[in-house]
Design the sequence.
């Protein structure tokens, strides 16, 4: 079975991954929802998770902060407490 049939949600980290995954969605009525990880951020407004490799320690800290925010929003979404389609609030 493909990931699209096996999973409810597929998360991508950057725009290229998002486009690549979306282009592979099968033409079936029941398939996974493809979302950007940053869709679940509530405090950060970045559109993708950047590669921290060239950003030194600060780049890794920034990615950690972004992913902690996104994971918190994702958990709340999965528990029905957060709609990532609503406007982000500071």
Sequence:
């Amino acid at each position: 079975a493909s990931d699209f049939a096996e999973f409810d949600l597929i998360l991508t980290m950057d725009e290229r991954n998002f486009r690549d995954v979306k282009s592979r969605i099968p033409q079936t009525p029941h398939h996974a929802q493809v979302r950007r990880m940053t869709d679940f951020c509530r405090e950060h407004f970045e559109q993708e998770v950047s590669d921290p490799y060239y950003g030194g320690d600060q780049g890794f800290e920034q990615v950690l902060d972004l992913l902690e925010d996104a994971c918190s929003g994702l958990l709340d979404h999965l528990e029905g407490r957060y709609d990532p389609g609503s406007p982000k609030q500071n």
